[in-house]
Amino acid sequence: MEFFHNVNVDWMGKAKYFVSLSLILLAVGWISILHNGGLRYGIDFRGGTLVYVRFAGPAPVNQIRKGLQDAGLANSSIQTISDNVLNGGAQNDVVIGIEKTGQGDEALDAGKQAILDVLHKTFGTTNTAGKQDFNSITASSLAAYLTQKDPLALGTNAGERYNQLAQRLTDARDKEHSGIVTNFDDLKNVDGATPAVLASLNSGFSLGNFTIRNVEIVGPKVGAQLRHQAFWATIYALGGMLLYIAFRFEWVYGAAAVIAVFHDVLITLGFFSIFHFEISLTVIAALLTLVGYSMNDTIVIFDRVREDLRLMRREPFPDVVNKAINQTLSRTILTSGLTFLTVLVLFLMGGEVLRAFSFAMVVGVVVGTYSSFGIAAPIVVLWAKYRGQGTAVRAGSAADKRVAAGARR
Amino acid sequence: MNPQLRWKFIFIAVVILLCIYGLIGVPTFPTSWTQVKQNLADRIKLGLDLKGGSHLVLQVQVDEAIGQRCDQAVDQITKQVHEKNIAVGEIRRVDDTHILVRNVDPNTSGTFRDLVSNQFADWAMAPAAGEQNGYLLTMKPSIVADLRRDTMDQSLETITRRINALGLTEPTIAFTGRGDNEILVQLPGEGDPTRAKSVIQAGGQLELNLVADEQPYPSEIAALGSHGGVLPAGTVIVPGKAENTSNSQAQQQVFYVLQRAPIITGQDLRGATPAPSANYPGQYEVRFQLSTAAAARFGPFTESNIGHRMAIVLDHKVYTAPVINGKIEDSGIIEGNFTQESAQDLALVLRAGALPASIKYLEERTVGPSLGADSIREGVRASIGSIIVVMIFLVIYYRLSGVNAVVALAFNLIILVAFMAYAGAVLTLPGIAGVILTIGMGVDSNVLVFERIREELRSGKAPASAVSVGFDRAFLTIIDTHVTTIVSAIFLFLFGTGPVRGFAVTLVIGLLANVFTSIYVSRAIFDWHLSRMERQAELSI
Fold this sequence. Notes:
The complex is a heterodimer. In chain A, 60% of the residues lie in helices and 8% in strands. By secondary structure, chain A is an alpha+beta fold.
C-alpha cells in the first residue's frame, strides 16, 4: 500500500503563501489573546484556589453560583466539565476557582474553606440528622464504624477483616463509581458486602450528592516562580537544540528550526486563547512535546537536504529543498497522520485531566508538520538567496561529512 | 542463521527477558495471573496525580530563627555589660542580623570591645555610621549560613518525626528546588490533608513559666499600666489562649505577666500522652512526663513556690495557669478544651519536638482517589487504544515489515516501562505525555527506514542491499532527531520543576530504548527474514 508516488511539488515557490497563512494564524490567535487580556494561566501559574467537585446528577450551576454570591465570593469562577463522549458526556462536574488567596498572612487554604463551606451549606449534608456522608468518608473511619456495628457478627476479633472490607468498599466507590455512590445497592458486588453490611451502611450513613475530587491551592508567589521557571526551562531547551543543529548542520539550519518551533508554540497558544483553554503545567509538557515533535519533523527534511546537496551539486538550492521535501513527503504524511490519530484518540477518550494537554497536541501536530516545510525550509532558502549564492549553504560540517561518508560506505 | 545474527537475537532476547522479569518477576516469581498484576502494580510507581494524595510545599520562616538568635545575643550582651559595669546608652536589635550599641562610655569602650571579640565571636564589630561611640554588630555570614542550614535540617527532621507518628503510608519529605527554605511533603492516598497540615504546622514550643502577677489583665495596656508603663526586668506579657468559638458567650481575651525565663521547656519532656480529662468530662487533656534531669530541677522549684501560679505556655499562648498546690515531681497536665483528636495531635507534636521556626504553606494539591483512578483508567485506555490503531495501520500499510515495526514498538514500550521501574522513576501525567512522544518517534523511525527501503527498491536495488542502504541512510536522520530531542529533554530536566522533569525523564529513557529497537532489533529481524527468503523474492513492505 502506498499513498504517494513521485510527488513533484514546487514547495519553495509557494513559500509566500505559507508565510502569509502563518501570519494570519498568528494574528488571529494573538488578537484573541490581547482581546482576552493576555494568556489564560491556570492556577499553577497565577496562584489561587481550585476545587473540582463531582455531583451525583447534572451539576446545579445556578445554585452553586448563588451560594457563592451569598457568601461574598462573587468573583469566583465556575466551569462545567463534560465527561467523555464515550461515557455519555454527562455534565456532572464543576471546577470552582477563586482568583487569589490574598497577599496577607491569612491561611493559604482560606479560599478552599470558603468554597467547601458554601457547598456544604447549599447542598447540605446536615439535614440528614447527623449521619456521616458515605461519599466523603475515609477507609479508616469506615472501618471504625463497621467494627463498632459488627454487621457480620464476627465478634471481638474482627478489626482486620473490617479494615479490608472498608478498603474494598471505598475502592469500589472511588474506582468504579468515580467517587460518588447514589444507592447502597450499587455496592452489592463488593466482596463481603452482604445484605447485612449494606443495611448497616444504609442506616448509619447518608449519601451526599457531591464529592470533592481535586483541590489545588497555589500561593501567588509560587505561581510567579513556576511561570518563570517553566519559561526559562523552555528557552534553555530551545537553545540546546539550536546548538546541536548548528553543530550538525549549519547555524542557519538551527536558527530556522528554532524559529519554526517558536512559530508553532505561538500559534498553539493563540488557539488556546480562542478555545478558552488555560495554560497549566501539564500544558507546558504538551507544548514541549510538540516542540520535540516539530523539531523532529524539521530535522528529517534538513537531513535529506544535506544528503541531496551532495548528489545535486549543480542544481539551484530551492530545487534541492523541494526535492528533499517531496522525497520525505510520504514519511511526513504517514508519521503526522498516525501521531494526529494518537492525540485525537487521547483528546476524545483521555478524560478531563488530559483534555487541555491533548488539545495542544492536536493543534501542535498539524502546525508542527506544516511549519517544517512552510516555515523552516523557506527560511534556509531565503538565507541562501540573501547571501546571493544559489547553492552556497552547504549543510554539514567537515566532521559530519566524514560520518556521512562512513555511513554510506 | 549465521553466527553473528544468532548472537544478535540472543542479546535481544536477554534484554527483553530481563525487562519482563524486572516488571513482573519480582519480588516473588508469579505463579498466577493476579500475582503478575500485583507485581506489575508494585513495580510501576505512580505519581500523586495518578494515584491520589496530597502534595504540600511549605516554607520555613528561617529568618525567624536568625532573629531569635539576634534577640538572645541582645539579652546576653545586656547582661554581660551590666556585670562588667560597662556604661552604654542602648543595645538594640536593628534587624535579624544587626545589633546597634549606642553611646558606649569612652572609658569602658576597651572593655566592651574585648567582651564582644572574646565572647561573641559570631558577630563582627564595626563603628556605627553616624553614631558617636556607637558600634554596629553584624552576624557573620558563615554563621548565618550555618544557622539557616541547621534550621532547615531540624525542621525537616521534626516534620518527618511528626508525619511518621501520624502513621501515614509512604510519605515523601524532602527539600525542594525553589530557594533554600522550602520543603516538599507528599502524602500518597491522603484525600484530606487538613489534619496532617495542622500537625505539621503546629509550633510545639512548650514552656512552663512562673506567673509574676497573680491576676491576669484584660489587655496589654492594662498589664503595662499596673507597672507604670515599664515591665519589671525579666518579665514578659503573654496572651492567654483564645477560647473556642463553640462557647456561646465569647470568653474575654486575657494577658498574663510571666517570668521570662522558663523553668521547663519542650526539650525536657520524656513523653506525652492524651487522656480523658479528669476535671472536665467529655474533654481531653495531654499528660506529660519530664526527663530525670528536668525532674531534679522541677521538684525543688515547685516545692519552694507552693501557692504561686505556674503558666503552661504553648506557642507563646498561656493555656492554663494553675496554682501550685504541692511539690510536683516529674509530670504535668495541659488542659485546654481538647477533643480526643486534638489532644492526640498535641501529644504527638510534643513528643516529636518543636519546630525551630514557624512554617507557611505555599502550595497544596490534593487529588482525590477517585480522580486518580479515573485518570489512570482513561489515560491507559486512550494510550492502548491509540497504540492499537497505529499498529493495525502499520501492518496494513507495510504488511510483513509492518509486523516488524509492531514488534519494535512493543519492545520499545517494554524497555521504557522496565527502565522506569528499575530506576524507581515515577509515572505522572506529564510522563504519559513523554510516552506518547516516544511512541510517535518510534513510529517515525520505522516509517523513515521503510520509506527509504521502498525508495531504494524503486530505484532497482535488490532487497538485501535496499534494506542495508535504507537502514544506513535513515540511521543518521534517526540519530539527529533523537539526539536533538534528548538534548532538549536534558535541559528541561536541569531547569524544570516537578511535572516538566517527569516528562523529561520518561522521554530520555523512551528515546534511548527507541534507538535500540528501531535500529538494532528491527534490522536484525529484517536480516533474519532476508536470510530465509529466496534471492529473487519480493520484500513484503
